[in-house]
Write a structure and sequence with these properties.
The chain is of the alpha/beta class. The protein has helices at residues 8-20, 30-39, 45-56, 76-91, 103-111, 133-139, 174-185, 197-206, 230-238, 249-252, 259-273, 287-296, 314-323, 328-346; strands at 24-28, 61-66, 97-99, 115-122, 142-146, 189-191, 243-245, 279-281. The longest helix has 19 residues, at 328-346. Helix 6 links the parallel strand 4 and strand 5 (142-146). It contains 14 helices and eight strands. Bound molecules: zinc ion.
């Protein structure tokens, strides 16, 4: 299928917008990829695989997940710590990029024109029922978490194998509810992407601080359990949350190659339901991660899943939104202002532990 063709004027407008305003990607499996590539003998991984693309699109903040694959769950906590250590090591001499864990650090990085990175746990399966380990993760630089990935965990059930369109029932466990309270005490942000519908309802009743969906789209535009229903999008917005636009073709629903068109449809629907203050970018680009992970397992690289070639292409998507008639002031909120406002509000003012 033919995708939206971008006109030069909108491309130029988008490039200027990206140069002059904050641009945020609220979801990238970066720490895991850095660990895998370092185990394969690579060095300066962020520099070689990401930095130029981030600069090209003027990124100010990337939220890196710490995602533990099923194959590593038996020593999951150890694997999570290894990912964090690998990312810290990789960024050590990279002056353009800075790991941050508090609002002051984030503000400072933006003022100094660094690309800030926040670390968060994509799924807390690795702590089992031991919620005291949240403190340990925070000491390591973790600033937020989702309770579970698309699988069953001790804290909650995920929406489970969304691409197979098979929903798992059952929301949070008693320990999961305690974990939400503990996360709030520790000023960790909460991500509900990957939670199932029952879990979403329960979080809505117990969370006292705004929570977000770092990488979920509109379910009424594309029917996947990884996406949010209109009612959920409305509720997410009502409590101050933001939905990050997911650019995985299985979640955007652009299986025939109409990537920009589908991403714009999700944004337009979310504008109607959630409003302009509650949408951001949370691309979940994973081709680079999957290539590395497959190489480590001696498997062939899978077919591409990303709707964008790389982070540099974020400008093209922004141009598509402008070309669809969305006002520039609204697009600025989507490209970065909304998520930046959220993180500055939700993170502790200063860091309790150094990075
Ligand atoms: Zn995910």
């Amino acid at each position: 299928m033919k995708d939206i063709q971008i006109e030069e004027t909108y491309r130029k407008q988008a490039e200027k917008l990206h140069r002059e305003n904050p641009v945020v990607d609220a979801h990238l499996d970066l720490a895991g990829e850095v660990l895998i590539r370092s185990q394969l003998g690579e060095r300066d991984i962020v520099k070689h695989h990401y930095l130029d693309d981030w600069k090209r699109s003027g990124f100010s903040l990337i939220v890196s997940s710490v995602f533990v694959e099923n194959r590593n769950l038996s020593n999951g906590f150890e694997n999570a710590l290894q990912q964090i250590a690998a990312l810290k090591r990789d960024l050590k001499d990279l002056t353009e990029v800075r790991l941050v864990n508090c609002a002051d650090g984030l503000k400072k990085a933006i003022v100094e024109k660094k690309i800030a990175i926040l670390l968060y746990m994509e799924g807390l399966e690795v702590i089992g029922e031991d919620i005291d380990l949240l403190m340990e993760l925070k000491k390591q630089g973790i600033t937020g978490a989702s309770l579970v990935w698309s699988r069953k965990g001790a804290l909650a059930n995920g929406c489970c194998r969304a691409t197979e369109h098979r929903q798992v029932k059952g929301g949070l466990t008693a320990t999961g509810r305690r974990a939400v309270r503990k996360m709030e005490e520790l000023s960790l942000f909460l991500d509900i992407s990957h939670l199932n519908d029952k879990g979403f309802e329960e979080v809505l009743t117990i969370a006292e601080r705004p929570f977000i969906a770092t990488h979920s789209n509109s379910r009424s535009v594309y029917d996947s359990y990884r996406n949010l229903t209109d009612e959920q999008l409305g509720r997410l917005a009502g409590q101050g949350g933001i939905a990050g636009l997911n650019a995985c073709k299985y979640i955007a629903g652009s299986l025939s190659g109409n990537h920009l068109e589908m991403l714009c449809r999700h944004v337009k629907k979310e504008l109607e339901i959630a409003g302009e203050d509650h949408i951001g970018y949370g691309f979940d680009l994973c081709d680079s991660y999957m290539t590395a992970s497959c190489r480590q397992r001696g498997k062939q690289s899978p077919e591409t899943e990303d709707c964008l070639e790389d982070h540099g292409d974020a400008v093209i998507l922004t141009a598509a939104l402008l070309q669809q008639g969305i006002l520039e002031k609204t697009v600025r909120k989507i490209t970065g202002e909304n998520f930046l406002r959220y993180f500055l509000q939700i993170l502790p003012e200063t860091a309790a532990s150094p990075l």
